[in-house]
Amino acid sequence: MELLFSQTREYAEERDQRDELRSYRREFYIPEGVLYMDGNSLGLLSKRAVMHMVEAWKQFGIDGWTEGDKPWFYLAEQLGGQMAPLVGAKPHEVVAAGSTTTNLHQLLATFYRPCGNRTKIVANELDFPTDIYAIKSIIRLKGLDPEQNLIRIKSEDGRYLREEEIISAMTEEVALVLLPTVLYRSGQLLNVKQLTEAAREKGVLIGFDACHSIGAVLHQFHAWQVDFAVWCTYKYLNSGPGGVAGLYVHEKHHSHSPGLAGWFGSRKDRQFDMDHTFEPAGSAGAYQTGTPHILSMAPLSGSLEMFAEAGMERIRKKSLVLTEYLMQLIRVRLDGMGFTIGNPVEEERRGGHVALEHVEAVRIAKALKAEKVIPDFRSPNVIRLAPVALYTSFADVWDVVDRLKRIMEERTYERFQQERGVVA
């Protein structure tokens, strides 16, 4: 990767001129005068396909299920096929469905099969809460005690996990492992390949929550033989708040019946037979439950077109360059101001955002918003800044650090209360 660094804004502008993905910035609605650095929490709205599904509804009515260039009846599988290259899967291994949490419940209900001594699930203490809630729920539904059957890997520093410790926990008592691909606070990218190989050697099923990596990090789930994965699409994939999620199931498991059956998981050619005997689709589509959320799929459809055009290799490359540039500016321009970079700096261990730590993080985040910089605060002391490859410019990154420098020099953050909002 090219070694980046110059403190001048002119350098950032010159980098933007050489950016081969710069044209995609025009494809998004970026609020006037705003520096949007929260795409790892909610991506911006793209201009493609937002009205496409509405127009189909207007034109075809109920026949939209089978008419038009994107019939709704097959849309979940079609979008799954478009997402498959982002995680290195085969098209029939991915489907757009549900939400992250409902998909977690679905796949845990399917793959957590405690038997004999193998009753435990391995997770970690830095997990996003919904993963732990789902795990505890499914353990209880199996008639077991979460206190006895949930293993949470400890973090030595509150930021990172060590793959070696996770692998050591994969004992003969473990039935399943569920981990994030990227830790939501620190942005640490786990070694998915290493962990999956270890789980396979130990006879343990392994799944991943890819919410904080899909669209920013390229995976190879099929080749690595990851058993299953879930993710949301409203972060780097720009599907909108509460947009339909995605799931992956390796084809070697497609003969299994889903733990939570629903009629949209049926074989397409038999679904409208209305038979009370469930015949699951021979693909990831079997893990759908209810009717797809067609209107919320519209922005995802448009966004995925751009991912196909740009290619995940180029997107990942630019993401790494942007976060490296951001870290370089922070080290030099904010030196001595109390900031610590809390994410891994190595490319192979870094996700799509920079985790900037400061004792006054909550007030600094509020001051940034007052300066029209949109960050993301995570308790107790992390400001997450996510330059997104498709719509963040190098000049944006420079301007963010410049405004942050001014906030610290003028101590304007002291005007704000040291407490987070209800929604952080």
TrEMBL record:
The entry describes its oligomerization and partners as:
Homodimer.
Keywords, sorted A to Z? Hydrolase, Pyridine nucleotide biosynthesis, Pyridoxal phosphate
Family listed: Belongs to the kynureninase family.
InterPro entries per the UniProt record, alphabetical: Kynureninase (IPR010111), PyrdxlP-dep_Trfase (IPR015424), PyrdxlP-dep_Trfase_major (IPR015421), PyrdxlP-dep_Trfase_small (IPR015422)
| Protein name (record) | Kynureninase
The enzyme's main class, written as a single word, is hydrolase
Residues with PTM N6-(pyridoxal phosphate)lysine: K235
Q: In which pathway does it act?
A: Amino-acid degradation; L-kynurenine degradation; L-alanine and anthranilate from L-kynurenine: step 1/1; Cofactor biosynthesis; NAD(+) biosynthesis; quinolinate from L-kynurenine: step 2/3
Cite a single GO BP annotation.
L-kynurenine catabolic process
In alphabetical order, the GO MF annotations are:
kynureninase activity; pyridoxal phosphate binding
Show the catalytic activity.
3-hydroxy-L-kynurenine + H2O = 3-hydroxyanthranilate + L-alanine + H(+); L-kynurenine + H2O = anthranilate + L-alanine + H(+)
The cofactors required by this protein are: pyridoxal 5'-phosphate
GO CC terms: cytoplasm
Q: What is its EC number?
A: 3.7.1.3
| Originating species | Thermoactinomyces daqus
Query: What is its biological role?
Result: Catalyzes the cleavage of L-kynurenine (L-Kyn) and L-3-hydroxykynurenine (L-3OHKyn) into anthranilic acid (AA) and 3-hydroxyanthranilic acid (3-OHAA), respectively.
Which residues are involved in binding pyridoxal 5'-phosphate? T100, T101, F128, P129, T130, D131, D209, H212, Y234, W263, T291
